[in-house]
TrEMBL record:
CDD domains: RING-H2_PA-TM-RING
InterPro entries for this protein: Znf_RING (IPR001841), Znf_RING/FYVE/PHD (IPR013083)
Species classification: Eukaryota, Viridiplantae, Streptophyta, Embryophyta, Tracheophyta
EC number(s) per entry: 2.3.2.27
SUPFAM superfamilies noted in UniProt: RING/U-box
Domain RING-type: 183-224
Zinc among keywords: yes
Protein name: RING-type E3 ubiquitin transferase
Keywords: Metal-binding, Zinc, Zinc-finger
Pfam families documented for this protein: zf-RING_2
Broad EC category: transferase
């Protein structure tokens, strides 16, 4: 399932310090961080929402090492990858925090409050992703296909003239393959030279994709045709 994201970081008013009490010994930074996953087909549909807030000493957070540790702890159970945190979240949030700290308008502001909004736009290939997700989350499907049934799959190379070139000898296998132009497992299009295979039900996939799938689930991702199991 492909996805795109956008990040919006804004500073909110300094009145938040009133909620923390009158005596604040240090200048503080407060972060409200939210992640929202939406459908690219309908942005009113939200699949998942994650919210975290944290307040700490501003001078501590403005250190890159400390900022990384704090942000990692904030999103630890969000499913966000470490690479995304290190390469995107930390640099963006830290740069905004340092900029806000340097602004003349923030002099004397005991608490700088940043709102970090991450919007993940999840794209779908019609109903294919929903079918794949349904299969992945259904425990009844987690029975691998037998080794012999996987080895029996026909292997061919894809060509955009709807003809297939076998790995060992050339013959037209087009009648055995469906007209779909992409793999419903990885959702990528087929390109000339890709190694593909046809399930007994007629649905076509990248050979490597469907083999990996069948090692976990014995059902066709599209029609639930059942391969033999051990």
């Amino acid at each position: 399932m492909a996805s795109r994201y956008s990040i919006k970081i804004t500073q909110e008013d300094c009145g938040f310090s009133e909620h923390l009490g009158a005596n604040i010994p240090h200048s503080l930074l407060h972060i409200d961080l939210g992640i929202r996953c939406i459908s690219s087909l309908n942005q009113d549909i939200t699949f998942e929402i994650f919210n975290r807030s944290g307040t700490g000493r501003r001078d501590v957070f403005l250190s890159e090492e400390n900022a990384r540790n704090i942000i990692h702890s904030m999103v630890a159970d969000s499913g966000v990858t470490r690479e995304f945190v290190d390469t995107v979240l930390v640099p963006d949030i830290l740069s905004h925090a340092r900029y806000a700290d340097s602004l003349h308008v923030n002099l004397g502001c005991q608490v700088i409050r940043l709102r970090v909004e991450i919007l993940v736009d999840v794209s779908f290939d019609d109903e294919i992703s929903e079918l794949v997700d349904e299969l992945l989350t259904s425990s009844v499907n987690f029975k691998p296909a037998s080794k012999s049934s996987i080895e029996s799959l026909k292997r061919a190379k894809y060509w955009d003239d709807d003809h297939c070139l076998p790995l060992k000898k050339r013959r037209n296998l087009g009648k055995d393959f469906s007209s779909r132009k992409g793999c419903a497992v990885c959702l990528d299009e087929f390109f000339n030279g890709n190694e593909i295979t046809s399930m007994p039900c007629g649905h076509v996939y990248h050979y490597g994709c469907i083999v990996e799938w069948l090692e976990t689930s014995h059902m066709c991702p599209l029609c639930r045709y059942q391969m033999s199991i051990n």
